[in-house]
Amino acid sequence: MIVLGIDPGIETTGWGVVKSIEREKIIPVSYGAILTTSKESLIERLQSINKQLQEVINKYKPNVVAIEQLFFLKRAATVAQVGQARGAIVLTIAQNKLPLYEYNPRSVKISLTGYGSADKQQMQRMVQSALGLKEIPRPDDAADALAMAICHLNSTKYNSNALPKDALNNLYKKNRTQSDRFSEKQILEILKKRSKQ
Q1: 168: helix, coil or strand?
Q2: Is 180 noted as a catalytic residue in this protein?
Q3: One of 102, 119, 141, 189 is an active-site residue; which one?
Q4: CATH value at residue 96
């Protein structure tokens, strides 16, 4: 299975492509970022995101796309801009008839580290380790996109059918502990239970 992970942004949209070999091995295929500048109009920026993402899809032919869920930040302007970029991304995915799965940042952190409050450096090191990379992927947005793709594969690894797009999204809410820490084994057990529901 080839998974395209996407971390949406109006200025920088990170993307990362990974491939699952058998059920246990995940290898990196490629990663990068779609860049726009504030000198471009909003329409030009969205068209650029659409065009460059289409090139990535054409080149790597993913089977599925994993994208970060939109969450509310403190600045409404930032949310609006990310939402517009995300809309262009989702439209491109829909035009290619690719299955789309969404994961919130906390779910991705739990999937990779077992800890929902892992910091950016911890996440980047886990992505580097999981993919056997010599260096941490740059820019940060590409590392986040790779984390999204790995999260999707982790959520479907022990289930031949893809789990619903919210497979990990409610994990913390429904399985809260005082320490807010989950082992990989606990996460897999929870996912197995959910897949049978």
Answers
A1: coil
A2: no
A3: 141
A4: 3.30.420.10
Q: What is the pLDDT of residues 26-42, one digit of tens each?
A: 999 999 999 999 999 99
Q: DSSP assignment of 96-165, as one string?
A: TT--EEEE-HHHHHHHHHSBTT--HHHHHHHHHHHHT-SS--SSHHHHHHHHHHHHHHHHHTT-SSPPPT
140 assigned ligand-binding residue: no
Residue 68 marked in a binding site: yes
Range of the domain at 94: 2-196
Helix (H, G, I), strand (E, B) or coil at 62: coil
Q: Give the pLDDT confidence score for residue 38 in this predicted structure.
A: 92
By the 8 A CB rule, do 100 and 90 touch? yes
Number of domains the chain is built from: 1
Q: Respond yes or no: is residue 68 known to be catalytic.
A: yes
Q: Is 141 a catalytic residue?
A: yes
